[in-house]
Amino acid sequence: MQNLEIPTIDLLGSLVKSGVRVFVYSGDQDSVIPLTGTRTLVNGLAKGLGLSTTVPYRVWFEGKQVGGWTQVYGDILSFATIRGAAHEAPFSQPQRSLVLFAAFLGGKPLPERVMSI
Q1: Of 99, 77, 97, which Cα lies nearest the Cα of 85?
Q2: 3-state SS class at 100
Q3: The whole model's pTM is what?
Q4: Distance from C-alpha of 87 to C-alpha of 58, rounded to nearest angstrom
Q5: Does the pLDDT value for residue 117 go beyond 60?
Q6: Geometric angle at alpha carbon 9, from 5 and 14, rounded to 5°
Q7: Do the Cβ atoms of 66 and 59 come closer than 8 Å?
Q8: Strand order in the sheet with 65-73
Q9: CB contact at 8 A, 79 and 52
Q10: Is residue 73 a contact partner of residue 16, using CB atoms and an 8 Å limit?
Q11: From CA 53, how far away is CA 20, in angstroms rounded?
């Protein structure tokens, strides 16, 4: 039987090289895949691809609450955390997840300041 396990980071690198925007996110309370490991892998991928940091690691907001942290490399690779989210982030933090996905799909940066509700 063929081993079908493919390292995800290699797949993401192939997508970035092909010009596809990639967004990697992690719940900050994920005990299955801790955010520090994900952030380290994304950082290494960016360096390996020669991408510079265009948005330094910073906080992002969902309404009047901190939604998490984000960092962007070039205009093609983004990383973000979702505050209070576990492994399946949309189930544990649906509103924050929606803000994150809507910003990425809309080609907009994550909110940098408190937004009035």
Answers
A1: 97
A2: helix
A3: 0.88
A4: 22
A5: no
A6: 100
A7: yes
A8: 22-27, 77-82, 65-73, 53-62
A9: no
A10: no
A11: 17
pLDDT category at 9 given cuts 50, 70, 90 is confident
Candidates 24, 9, 36, 8; CA nearest to 76 is 24
Q: Which residues pair with 26 in a beta bridge?
A: 81
Overall residue count recorded for the chain in this entry: 117
For residue 80, the 8-state DSSP code is: E
* pLDDT at residue 7, as a whole number: 78
Q: Give the three-class secondary structure for 88.
A: coil
* Residue in the structure block whose two tokens are 């982030």: 89
* 5 has a pLDDT exceeding 80: no
What are the pLDDT digits (tens) for 34-70?
Answer: 999 999 999 999 999 999 999 999 999 999 999 999 9
Instruction: Indicate the pairing of strand 22-27 with strand 77-82.
Output: parallel
SS3 3: coil
